[in-house]
Task: inverse folding
C-alpha cells in the first residue's frame, strides 16, 4: 500500500507546468488535491514516472465573479466552494451539492479542477457543470481552447483533455432572474459517492418550467444531460402528470450501469424518484 | 527530476528539515522519520480517517498528502495538540463518555473534533455526525464519540 517511485516537480508558473506536460506526455501526471490520485498510487493502479504538482501556481487559484459569470479556478478547493459567498449567491446548485462531496478532510484538499478532470461518473461537480452549461478553459503549449461541459465528459474517467493539456478554470453563468436550482442524491453514507443523483436548473414562473436542464450522475458512465426528460417538463405547468412524463422520459435518457452496489433497475428507479422530488422542491421553493 | 527532495516545515511548533523520498506520504514521514506514532494508518487510501492530521490550520488525510507537499507547511498531530493543552477538555470528555475502546481511530477523531470546536458554536448531533463521516470507528458505534464531542462543546460554548 505504498506508492511506487516517481519523480516530482513543483512548477511555480502555468507556463512551466505546460512545458513539463508537453515534454513528458503520458509518463507525467498532474497532481492537484491528490485525493483521487494518491489512492491509485498507493494501490499501484497507476505508476506515472513524473508527478507535476500544480498546487503553487497562483493563476489556477480563486473564485471570482464578473459580467454575470463565475470563474472557478482549477485549484479552488472543495472547502473553498462550500464556504464561498459568491457560490452561495450565484451558483446555488453547486452550493447545495458541496456538502455531499466527500468528507471534511477530503474537501480541505480536493480541488474543483481535479474533480472535473478525473470525471468520476458519480461525482457531483461534473453533473453541476453540465446542468449549468459551464465552459471549461483548457491550456497547452499549443494554446488555449474552451470546451462546453456537455461535450467535455466522454465516458468513464474520460474527458476532452489531451495528454498535454491542463484544465485552467471553469466559467459558469450566474443564476439569472427567475431561475432556480435543485440538487438531490442518494448515497449509502453521507459523503460517499452517489448511487444516483440529479441536478436541476430551470426558469420557474409560478408552476411553469422553462429552459429546463436536468443532469443525472451516478447511474451512467458519465454525467448525462437528460434531454428527453428536460423536454418533457419544458413549458408546462408542474403537475402529477408532468412528473410521470418526466420520469418516463428519463427511462429513455438513461441506461444505467448495474454493479454490486445497486442494480441498473434500482439506479433508474432512484434517478426517477430523485428527479421528481427535486422538481417538486424547485417549484415549491417559490 | 528528483526521487528525493529536501523539505523544511514545522511540526507541532518545532522546525524540522529532512531529505525525503518523494513517494513518502505525510504520515509515514511523521511516524518513521520523526517518531510521532500518534497518527495512525488504517487503509492508506483515504477511506478511514485514522491518519488525520492538521496542515496549515485544516485537517487533511495524512495518507493522501506527500511529505514533499508539506514543504513550508505548519503541521500538527495529536502529540502536539496534547502538549499544548488545546484539546485537553475534548480528551477528558472522550474518557468520561467512553468514546474510545481500542483507541486506533481516536487521534483522527480528536483532530477532526478539534476542527469542529473551532467553528466556535454548539452543533446538533446530526451536524457532528456529518462532520465525522470521514472518520471510521470499528469499536464504539459512534454514539459515545458524538456524546463526547457534544460534552466538549457544552463545556466551551455553554448550554
Ligand atoms: C474518502 C473519499 C471520498 C470521496 N467522496 C467523493 C464524493 O462523494 N464526491 C466527489 O465528487 N468526490 C469524492 N471524492 C474525490 C475527491 O472529491 C477528489 O478530491 C476529486 O475527485 C479529485 O480532486 P483532486 O484535486 O484530489 O485531484 P487529484 O487526485 O490530484 O487528480 C485527479 C486526476 O485529475 C488530474 N488533474 C487534476 N487537476 C487537473 C487539472 N487542473 N488539469 C488537468 N488534469 C488534472 C490528475 O492528473 C489526476 O489524474 C472522494 C475522495 C475520497 C478519498
Ligand atoms: S489511512 Fe488515511 S484514510 Fe485510512
Ligand atoms: S475505538 Fe477502536 S476503532 Fe474506534
Result:
Amino acid at each position: 500500500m505504498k506508492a511506487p517511485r516517481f519523480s516530482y516537480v513543483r512548477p511555480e508558473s502555468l507556463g512551466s507546468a505546460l512545458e513539463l506536460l508537453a515534454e513528458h506526455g503520458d509518463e507525467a501526471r498532474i497532481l492537484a488535491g491528490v485525493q483521487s490520485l494518491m489512492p491509485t498510487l498507493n494501490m499501484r493502479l497507476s505508476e506515472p514516472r513524473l508527478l507535476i504538482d500544480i498546487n503553487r501556481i497562483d493563476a489556477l487559484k480563486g473564485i471570482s465573479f464578473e459580467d454575470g459569470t463565475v470563474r472557478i479556478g482549477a485549484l479552488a478547493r472543495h472547502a473553498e466552494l462550500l464556504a464561498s459567498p459568491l457560490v452561495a449567491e450565484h451558483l446555488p446548485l453547486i452550493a447545495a451539492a458541496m456538502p455531499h462531496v466527500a468528507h471534511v478532510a477530503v474537501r480541505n484538499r480536493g480541488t474543483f479542477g481535479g474533480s472535473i478532470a478525473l470525471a468520476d461518473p458519480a461525482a457531483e461537480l461534473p453533473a453541476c457543470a453540465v446542468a449549468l452549461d459551464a465552459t471549461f478553459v483548457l491550456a497547452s503549449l499549443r494554446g488555449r481552447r474552451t470546451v462546453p461541459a456537455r461535450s467535455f465528459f466522454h465516458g468513464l474517467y474520460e474527458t476532452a483533455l489531451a495528454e498535454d493539456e491542463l484544465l485552467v478554470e471553469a466559467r459558469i453563468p450566474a443564476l439569472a432572474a427567475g431561475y432556480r436550482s435543485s440538487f438531490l442524491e442518494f448515497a449509502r453514507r453521507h459523503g460517499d459517492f452517489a448511487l444516483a443523483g440529479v441536478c436541476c436548473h430551470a426558469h420557474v414562473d409560478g408552476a411553469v418550467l422553462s429552459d429546463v436542464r436536468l443532469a443525472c450522475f451516478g447511474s451512467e458512465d458519465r454525467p448525462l444531460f437528460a434531454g428527453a426528460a428536460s423536454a418533457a417538463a419544458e413549458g408546462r405547468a408542474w403537475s402529477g402528470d408532468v412528473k410521470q412524463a418526466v420520469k418516463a422520459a428519463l427511462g429513455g435518457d438513461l441506461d444505467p450501469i448495474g454493479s454490486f452496489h445497486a442494480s441498473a433497475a434500482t439506479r433508474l428507479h432512484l434517478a426517477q424518484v430523485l428527479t421528481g422530488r427535486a422538481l417538486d422542491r424547485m417549484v415549491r421553493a417559490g | 527530476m528528483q526521487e528525493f527532495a529536501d523539505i523544511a516545515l514545522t511540526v507541532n511548533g518545532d522546525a524540522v528539515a529532512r531529505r525525503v523520498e518523494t513517494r513518502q506520504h505525510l504520515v509515514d514521514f511523521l511516524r518513521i522519520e520523526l517518531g510521532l506514532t500518534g497518527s495512525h494508518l488504517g487503509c492508506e487510501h483515504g477511506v478511514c480517517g485514522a491518519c488525520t492530521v492538521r496542515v496549515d490550520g485544516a485537517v487533511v488525510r495524512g495518507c493522501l498528502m506527500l511529505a514533499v507537499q508539506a514543504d513550508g507547511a505548519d503541521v500538527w498531530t495529536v502529540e502536539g495538540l496534547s502538549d499544548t493543552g488545546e484539546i485537553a477538555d475534548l480528551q477528558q470528555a472522550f474518557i468520561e463518555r467512553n468514546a474510545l475502546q481500542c483507541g486506533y481511530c481516536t487521534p483522527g477523531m480528536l483532530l477532526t473534533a478539534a476542527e469542529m470546536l473551532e467553528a466556535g458554536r454548539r452543533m446538533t448531533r446530526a451536524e457532528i455526525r456529518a462532520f465525522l463521516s470521514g472518520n471510521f470507528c470499528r469499536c464504539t458505534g459512534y454514539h459515545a464519540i458524538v456524546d463526547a464531542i457534544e460534552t466538549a462543546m457544552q463545556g466551551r460554548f455553554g448550554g
